[in-house]
Known about the structure:
mainly alpha
Amino acid sequence: MNHLDALVEALPRIGDGILVTLELTAGGALLAFVLALALGTTVRVHNLVVRGSARVLIEFFRGTSLLVQLFWLYYVLPLLGYQLDPVFCGILALGLNYGAYGAEVVRGALNAVPKAQTEAAVALGFSPWQRLRRVLFPQAWALMIPPLGNLLVHLLKGTAVASYITLQDLTFETSKLRDSTGDTLFAYGVGLLIYFVIAYLLSLGMNLVEARAKHKLGRGPSLRDVLRLAPDKSLDTAADTGPAPRKVAP
């Protein structure tokens, strides 16, 4: 059997592996985003106990290996009487690990908003929740999207560890393709290409989210302009020509 025939035969299994990878990516990203928002805002509160607890959680999950966390959830918890579904276990490990990293992104973006914005909100009588929701977060959101997009791509690549807990994801099916063809270069080349395509599509999606967030703040073109097939040259022409020169009387 040549490589092409083996690939065609493996396509259904590879498709199932891609679905498992996407499921882990979507579930892990959603959980990580919720945790990042919760922990990233909690570490900014004045209560020392609450802030310290959030900081301990962040540092613990950032400072320990994702693979060790996954093994602990899947192999150690059953010894304590808790058996987790493999998919849920993978989503939980990814969400906890990358949510801790995302919390630092959220904290840094909120701290990057000028203090004058908070002072103005206080002067207007906004409550702490109103200041966060209506003043701080809309401005910080545009700042945190690029690093969160990078974490999303890292999370996608991190799903490869799920093959260690019997999940037949893309990495697992790539290994099966290598076993059937005996060609490591070909099999992992296919897997490399698939991961790249998924990561590139995720990056494009995050770029669109960033463009929309910046446009709402008046800092960039609208999403319609970004998606326009032909570039709008009217603004460039206006910028190049500038205002008409004034006639100076002799």
